[in-house]
Amino acid sequence: MPPPTFELIMAKTVVLERKPLSFSERTYLPQIATGLKTTFSNMFKPKVTLQYPEEKPVIPNNYRGVPTLVKDPNGREKCVSCQLCEFVCPPKAIRITPGSVPEDQDDREHVEKAPQEFEINMLRCIYCGYCQEVCPEEAIFLQDEYSSSGFTREEMINNKEKLYELGGTLPDRHYKWDKKKEAETDGNTH
Amino acid sequence: MIAPDKKEMVNITLNGIEVEVPNGINAVEAAALHGKEVPHYCYHPKLSVAGNCRMCLVEMGTPMRDRASGEPILDEDGAQKIGWVPKPVIGCATNITPGMHLRTESDLVNECREGIMEFLLVNHPLDCPICDQAGECRLQEFATDYGRGYSRYIERKNVKPKRTRLGPRVTLDDERCILCSRCIRFSQEVAKDDVLGFVDRGSFSTLTCFPGKELANNYSLNTVDICPVGALTSTDFRFKMRVWFLKESKSVCTESSSGCNTLVSSREGVIQRITPRRNDLVNDTWMTDSGRELYKLVKSDSRIRRPSFQGSDLPLDDAISQAFETLRNKKIGVVASCHSTLEEQFLIKRLVEKTGAKVFIRGHFGEDDGILLSADRTPNLRGALVTELTTHYPSDHLNELNDSISDGHIEALLVIGENLQESGVNEDNLKKVSLVFLGTHQNSTSDGADVVLPGLTVFEKSGSLINRSFFLQSFEQAIPGPAGLMTDFKILARLNNLFSEDSSAPSELDEIWKALSTTETSVLKGITFLKIKKGAIQLDGSKWEDLSFVEKEALHHLPAGVTAS
After folding, report:
1. Best of B203, B237, B242, B245 to disrupt the A interface by mutation (most A CBs within 10 Å)?
2. Tens-digit pLDDT profile for residues B86-138
3. In this predicted complex, what is the ipTM?
4. CB of B363 closer than 8 Å to CB of B396
5. Binary contact (B159, A81; C-beta < 8 A)
6. Of B129, B156, B204, which is closest to A82 when you measure between CB atoms?
7. Alpha-carbon distance B249 to B215, whole Å?
8. What is the pLDDT of residue B1?
9. Is B176 exposed, middle or buried (0-12, 13-18, 19+ CB in 10 A)?
10. Which residues of chain B neighbour A99 with C-beta distances below 8 Å?
11. For a pLDDT cut of 90, what percent of chain B falls above it?
């Protein structure tokens, strides 16, 4: 079979007729005027540009920023290093070294377990918020911090100290340790 | 009552389906044989039946017969009527009889389980986030299956001590205890050290040690394993790592010749704990506490991590060549080890044959506790017999070697892990010979050796061992060895090749086994490594019956010539 001819392969080309420009169009003045109208109208509208980084945007409440560790209003760490966040973390950004809390610390009564070290690698973190969702102690929150930068890879790993510094204290609904103490003092000890 | 023969198979009806089970086993085991799980806490296959958790309630019935005539009572359809026991019975204490009917999935049974779960959870602290048992906890599992999901209990929960020290290795969390008494029965029946008991009443009942005693026996950590909840925890493993991160590798304990089957749990190349693996022929479900600590040797300070020649580090390849140079054209002695695997011993034997070296081997002995710590503290003494490294029973010294060096019969030594100074070899004598040391840990012999070749611990290599009852068992690698090191049998194969350039030594496990299993007279004939991996193989030990093995009668072990007492 002979190869198909050029006409058969190509669709037919329709040549459209182009009208010549009118006189006003040829002066370009009406178009410039319309453009400047938009420019001048925006001069009198309220400004929307944010002078970042001098000026910071308002962060909505459910924003998923940098994951942080929080303390309860008594200043005790809430994390018990159950490692569920480490387990659920899709990019494996979290690394916890569990540790036990000595019995004789007055300010940490009834706390048995706490992280010895808690690292979140912000180069790996994808801000998915699974860690916050899975946490049984409400100890990890993705808060309003959104920009983290550093000069080395090591700097981008948030350690326990940094995480508590970023997290601060959030209101607590449970006061778990206080409840445990209460139960012991006037509850059913034998 | 005459105990029924458990080998005899009988028919029972399980959930309306006729199945065959061994006569006289209990309902929990019978159901398990046919894939029906009867949840239970207090029942343990290797302990006596206590029947106090009530979780294994099932419905039981027997075909009805007329009391006077003994004729079967038939229903309208002509089938024999089933007399169902009006209330559920506990499965663990219900032994199978021919024709028995069981229901493990009825509404009544499920209701029972839900009720029991609710009571068990009444005073449960719900501290799963910090509980080491989480992930392998029967209470968690059955709460998922039969729990109601919320609590109807509005009273305050009982508060109990959270970290009671029961012994040097066991910590008790009282709030989590469900009073199943497995640990108490274990201490009485297996460890034969009756120290645990319950005190107080009702929901205040507490597990405790008897006054002035503590749970300090060498089997105390088994109570942690059999605890169905997180009440008994291992002080060593407490709060170390959540169990769902752990990779489990099948291994064999190398503490003594009993050869306990173990699971080595590791995460990212770090061993976190060792637990027993069930093998009804060897160790049931137990192992010693001392055997669980062996993993600490991997990270010990005295570990040899680098090959060295006369005190300076060098690459492994060069070290092996140096070892060859040190040994060649001399009268060689080889100090083999009962700690080596069967495969390594085979290659040592091959090396000995190629070089005409003299073999010395030493045994290590201790007290026999009659359970799982045998008097022979090496895992593979019988391997040395099977591979014909030695024909006589090793004694616990190397005086013979000392004499040979004194007489000038030995000029160079290849030592596998042994400490010669502690084995009765004179320090001055050792200075006369050039020394090549292959081992995992530093000792005074390795310190004085010309060439030190680092070996791998049992957790870092694969191989097989022969236990005191001539069971051939394999273990698999759990963690990678230190960087740049080779597994012991590969080093030995290289040495073999250097000494005999005409034939190459097998350097893979299957190749070694091909060579091992083709010897016509060997007891290993026809065995492949794959076969051992599938389960322990009983070897014929009658060839060595006359040797005076030091092991006493113990759990699943009967010395040759002794009849069961």
Report:
1. B242
2. 999 999 999 999 999 999 999 999 999 999 999 999 999 988 999 999 999 99
3. 0.85
4. yes
5. no
6. B129
7. 29
8. 47
9. buried
10. 239
11. 83
Q: Do B130 and A82 touch (CB under 8 A)?
A: yes
Instruction: Specify the 3-state DSSP secondary structure of B229.
Output: coil
pLDDT of B34 reads 95
A-B Cβ pairs (cutoff 8 Å, strict): 56
The C-alpha atoms of residue B450 and residue B435 are separated, in whole angstroms, by 5
Q: Which residues of B touch A80 (CB under 8 A)?
A: 129-130
Sheet of strand A113-121, all strands in order from the earlier edge strand to the far edge:
A94-100, A113-121, A157-158
pTM comes to: 0.88
Q: What is the mean pLDDT of residues B308-328?
A: 94
Bridge-based pairing of strands B412-416 and B332-337 is parallel
Rounded to the nearest 10 degrees, how much is the dihedral formed by the CA atoms of A129, A134, A140, A143?
30
pLDDT tens track for B177-225: 999 999 999 999 999 999 999 999 988 899 999 999 999 999 999 999 9
CB contact under 8 A, B158 and A87: no
Q: Enter the tokens of residue B344.
A: 């390594």
List the B261-267 sheet strands across, edge first: B247-252, B261-267, B270-276
CB contact under 8 A, A81 and B240: no
pLDDT 10s digit of each residue in chain A, 190 long? 666 665 666 778 889 999 999 999 899 999 999 999 999 999 999 988 899 989 989 999 889 999 999 998 888 899 999 999 999 999 999 999 999 998 888 788 788 999 999 999 999 999 999 999 999 999 999 999 998 899 999 999 999 999 999 999 988 888 888 888 888 887 666 5
For B266-272, the CB contacts below 8 A with 24+ separation are B266/B459, B266/B478, B266/B479, B267/B241, B269/B479, B269/B480, B270/B479, B271/B295, B271/B298, B271/B459, B271/B478, B271/B479, B272/B237, B272/B240, B272/B241, B272/B246
Q: Which chain A residues are within 8 Å of B130, Cβ to Cβ?
A: 80-82, 112-113
Instruction: Name chain B contacts of A81, Cβ cutoff 8 Å.
Output: 130, 239
Interface contact A187-B159, CB threshold 8 A = yes
- Do the Cβ atoms of B159 and A82 come within 8 Å? no
Tokens 């709030």 sit on residue:
B175
Yes or no: say if B336 and B359 are a contact pair by the CB < 8 Å rule: yes
The answer to whether the Cβ–Cβ distance between A136 and B239 falls below 8 Å is no
Which residue in the set B159, B206, B244 is minimally distant from A184, CB to CB?
B159
What type of residue sits at position B451? V
Strands B412-416 and B434-439: parallel
